[in-house]
């Protein structure tokens, strides 16, 4: 009962002890309380009750009862870090018990061996137990043994064997009332999905398991560990670190299992390393190493040492000693049959290369490279990274490019199994090293065309295919509606100066639920289509000049495309450009308010400095025609129209040359429908919208949505498949969660997740709002936000602002922009003319610079 209805079993056991029971019955009751405390409470209390249960079993003179309690006590001692005592208790349990009971004891010794990382010993014991349990028709314990055997197979990388055992165990659990263990098998299936590279299914199953545990009131620290592993694989390392640290706090608060604390510390160390926080990673990993060593868990200790070496290298502590340490860890992991062994070999080779030890590097990298042919995607990525480094050390540029291509193809296929654009974007971080190696090899070969190809290979890949549309999920739609209502109430309370902690808590809860459901969506498209073709780009450009900025070793490389060729120029340091861009943003924010005219010359000077850093000598070769700028993700906030050589041009920005080509080739939808939307609370009341309604005539008479008509469901219905949508609304960028960046409608925020439900986003969309062009840079070179959500959904052109803007100054800009559009101009042409038509004061000039045309429509 303790695993079917844990809290009820605890109460019943306490009731037995209150009724003057016999030694045999009292032994059972103490054992139940000990199991409850061991798994969900205080490990010290668990040991107290289990020792009492053991003594009472001896008094009852029942060898099988004593053997059964000794097995439970042995597991608890192992979990408390007293490995030697625990194994002695388990061995004693095997000796004193017999038959069916001995099989149950063997299962628990197998479990303890799994906790300790002694996988082969675990398999031996569980294989001895299963036939006896089956012969006794003991469904529950047979299912437990099969689940354990599957988990051990997973630890050894034998996924197919694990699947077979999980399936058999799940069929058995369905015939029992063991609710906790039913949740455990769902959790274990989530782990299996993760091992097979299916992150969305893994997240869904782990969330299902968490819901089932919550109903039982029993926390599962193993679930936290597994979810952190999946979050890290999905590129959500900061979230994994926060979750692991939170779980450690909970475990410490209840005096829980020492073994689980060590495992959580290891997960936290890995997450901190992936989140570029090497000092936190060193602290967590060092403590994990000490705990695992004290618990006599060499398999786990070796994994913690691997993370410790990685973190020390990331902190700049590369040395010959680290090479030896990494090599020793790789050898030990290989002896355990651990799938992480190639990672350690790659690490040893990478450190050796950094020290110039080419022979040692080749030896270690050759071992790591063996994993490139088989296994889950991230393991093959490790192998191809090792192969690329081998080729670079051997001076083979062709070998580097081939290994990088093969490795990124593997990651492409993995990335496209992910339906959520956020996961796709974050997953690209795994390919950053391969992309950088290929770019450097291209630069060394001196060919700007090749550098352009590799700059495009891993830039804005999320935009190469639309995200998988969320299913028609009534629960998700209901949650979105509830989120909008709560967010609207919170915004109203803030404007009134009322405290809103309860509303904010509920809003965060609803955001977590929306995001969770979105991350469960699986992708379906192949990642190997629509490869970038330089010839096709050059043929499409005509008089246009496309400026793609690549960053190698921290310096901006300008690739100027046009006139049938690609030329390379070297500009300034990326770090300097980022600092200058921040200063410009601060200047534009100040100029959005009246009375800041004196700052205008300063902002213009910053624009000149930015041009030197970002374009360098290429600025003199732009010609006189239109320009398309393709910046790296870290420069997305640059107001490009402020740069002197771009100020009076037809100028557009694109996340990649590939996305510009797709936008250029996108056909407008039939019907020529125009939609104008006016959200609430604007300082001008969205004054341009009524005037725009009279600007378009004939079949293009627009649909006007304002007041109560400007509600999210109606807005989405009208803009779906429209030729042009103009939305005047308050915009909010969420740096903490960019896909909750929003436009304020009458019933609450219209968020990126809403746009992703459109069959086709508007061909052209104008966002007359603050901060709508702000984007979060994630992964290798990806951007998340409103603009990048629209581009893969059918939108060929967007006008949006990268800074706060003055509502009153926006009105004449928007009217002039639409005047140009109605005359047949493109967005970039109309925006250029609209800036020229504005008054020359600082307020209007800054407003014009803040808006950017994206795409090619």
Summed up:
This protein is an alpha/beta fold. A hairpin with a 2-residue loop joins strand 10 (742-745) and strand 11 (748-751).
Give a verbal description of the structure.
Pfam families: CHAT. Residues 605-855 form the CHAT domain. This is CHAT domain-containing protein. This protein has 857 residues and is an alpha/beta fold. The protein is 61% helix and 9% strand. Helix 7 runs antiparallel to helix 8 (139-155), helix 17 packs antiparallel against helix 18 (341-355) and helix 20 (377-393) runs antiparallel to helix 21 (397-415). The protein is globular and about 100 Å long.
Layout of strands and helices, then pairs:
Elements: H1 6-17, H2 23-40, H3 43-60, H4 63-79, H5 83-96, H6 99-116, H7 119-135, H8 139-155, H9 159-173, H10 179-195, H11 199-216, H12 221-233, H13 237-254, H14 258-274, H15 278-294, H16 298-314, H17 320-336, H18 341-355, H19 358-369, H20 377-393, H21 397-415, H22 421-427, H23 432-445, H24 448-457, H25 474-495, H26 501-519, H27 534-541, E1 545-552, E2 555-562, E3 565-573, H28 574-591, H29 600-614, E4 627-630, E5 651-653, H30 657-665, E6 674-678, H31 688-693, E7 703-706, H32 712-719, E8 724-728, E9 731-732, E10 742-745, E11 748-751, H33 752-755, E12 764-768, E13 776-778, E14 782-784, H34 786-790, E15 797-801, H35 807-822, H36 827-837, H37 842-850, E16 851-855
Parallel strand pairs: 1-4, 4-5, 6-7, 6-8, 8-12, 12-15
Antiparallel strand pairs: 1-2, 2-3, 9-10, 10-11, 13-14, 15-16
Protein name: CHAT domain-containing protein
Domain CHAT: 605-855
Pfam family, one: CHAT
């Amino acid at each position: 009962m303790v695993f079917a209805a844990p809290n009820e079993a605890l109460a019943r056991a306490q009731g037995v002890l209150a009724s003057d029971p016999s030694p045999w019955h009292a032994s059972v009751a103490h054992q139940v309380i000990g199991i409850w405390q061991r798994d969900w409470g205080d490990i010290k209390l668990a040991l107290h009750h289990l020792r009492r249960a053991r003594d009472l079993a001896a008094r009852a003179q029942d060898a099988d009862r004593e053997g059964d309690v000794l097995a439970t006590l042995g597991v608890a001692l192992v979990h408390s870090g007293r490995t030697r005592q625990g194994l002695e208790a388990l061995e004693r349990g095997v000796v004193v018990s017999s038959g069916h009971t001995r099989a149950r004891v063997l299962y628990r010794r197998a479990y303890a061996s799994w906790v300790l990382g002694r996988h082969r010993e675990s398999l031996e014991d569980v294989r001895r137990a299963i036939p006896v349990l089956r012969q006794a028709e003991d469904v529950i314990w047979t299912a437990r043994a099969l689940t354990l055997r599957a988990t051990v197979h997973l630890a050894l990388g034998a996924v197919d064997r694990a699947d077979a055992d999980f399936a058999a165990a799940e069929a058995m659990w369905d015939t029992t009332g063991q609710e906790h263990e039913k949740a455990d098998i769902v959790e274990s299936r989530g782990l299996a999905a993760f091992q097979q590279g299916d992150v969305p299914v893994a997240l869904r199953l782990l969330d299902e398991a968490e819901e089932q545990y919550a109903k039982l009131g029993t926390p599962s620290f193993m679930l936290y560990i597994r979810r952190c592993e999946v979050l890290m694989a999905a590129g959500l390392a900061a979230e994994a670190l926060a979750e692991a640290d939170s779980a450690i706090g909970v475990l410490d608060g209840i005096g829980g299992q020492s073994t689980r604390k060590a495992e959580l510390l290891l997960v936290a160390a890995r997450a901190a390393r992936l989140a570029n926080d090497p000092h936190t990673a060193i602290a967590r990993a060092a403590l994990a190493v000490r705990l695992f060593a004290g618990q006599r868990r060499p398999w786990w200790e070796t994994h913690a040492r691997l993370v410790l070496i990685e973190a020390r290298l990331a902190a700049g502590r590369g040395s010959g000693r680290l090479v030896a340490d990494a090599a020793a860890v790789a050898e030990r992991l290989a002896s355990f049959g651990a799938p992480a062994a190639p990672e350690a070999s790659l690490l040893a080779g990478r450190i050796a290369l950094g020290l110039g030890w080419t022979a040692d590097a080749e030896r270690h990298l050759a071992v790591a490279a063996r994993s490139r042919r088989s296994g889950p995607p991230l393991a093959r990525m490790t192998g191809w990274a090792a192969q690329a480094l081998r080729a670079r050390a051997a001076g083979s540029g062709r070998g580097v490019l081939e290994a990088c291509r093969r490795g990124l193809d593997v990651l492409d296929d993995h990335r496209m199994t992910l339906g959520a654009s956020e996961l796709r974007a974050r997953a690209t971080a795994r390919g950053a090293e391969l992309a950088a190696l290929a770019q450097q090899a291209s630069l060394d070969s001196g060919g700007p065309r090749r550098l352009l190809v590799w700059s495009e290979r891993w830039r804005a890949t999320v935009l190469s295919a639309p995200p998988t549309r969320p299913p028609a999920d009534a629960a998700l739609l209901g949650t979105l509606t509830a989120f909008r209502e709560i967010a609207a109430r919170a915004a109203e309370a803030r404007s009134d100066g009322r405290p809103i902690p309860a509303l904010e808590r509920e809003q965060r809860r609803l955001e977590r639920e929306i995001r969770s459901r979105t991350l469960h969506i699986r992708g379906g498209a192949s990642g190997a289509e629509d490869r970038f073709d330089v010839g096709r780009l050059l043929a499409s450009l005509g008089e246009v000049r496309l400026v793609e900025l690549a960053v190698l070793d921290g310096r901006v490389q300008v690739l100027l495309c046009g006139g049938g060729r690609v030329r390379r120029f070297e500009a300034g340091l990326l770090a300097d450009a980022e600092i200058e861009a921040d200063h410009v943003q601060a200047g534009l924010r100040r100029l959005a308010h009246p009375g800041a005219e004196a700052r205008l010359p300063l902002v213009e000077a910053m624009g000149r400095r930015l041009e030197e850093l970002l374009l360098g000598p290429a600025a003199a070769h732009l010609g006189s025609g239109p320009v398309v700028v393709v910046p790296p993700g870290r420069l997305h906030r640059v107001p490009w129209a402020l740069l002197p050589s771009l100020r009076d041009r037809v100028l557009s920005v694109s996340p990649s040359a590939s996305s510009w080509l797709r936008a250029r080739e996108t056909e407008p939808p039939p019907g020529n429908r125009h939609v104008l939307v006016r959200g609430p609370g604007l300082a001008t009341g969205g004054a341009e919208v009524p005037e725009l309604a009279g600007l378009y005539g004939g079949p293009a008479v627009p649909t006007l949505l304002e007041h109560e008509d400007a509600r999210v469901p109606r807005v989405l219905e009208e803009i779906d498949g429209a030729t042009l949508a103009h939305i005047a609304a308050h915009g909010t960028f969420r740096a903490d969660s960019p896909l909750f960046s929003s436009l304020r409608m009458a019933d609450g925020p219209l968020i990126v997740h809403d746009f992703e439900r459109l069959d086709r986003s508007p061909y052209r969309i104008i966002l007359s709002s603050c901060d709508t062009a702000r984007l979060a840079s994630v992964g290798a070179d990806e951007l998340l936000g409103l603009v990048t959500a629209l581009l893969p959904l059918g939108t060929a052109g967007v006008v949006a602002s990268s800074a706060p803007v003055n509502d009153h100054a926006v009105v004449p800009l928007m009217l002039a922009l639409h005047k140009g559009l109605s005359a047949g101009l493109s967005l970039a042409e109309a925006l250029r003319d609209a800036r020229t038509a504005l008054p020359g004061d600082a307020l209007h000039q800054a407003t014009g610079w803040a808006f950017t045309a994206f795409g090619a429509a």
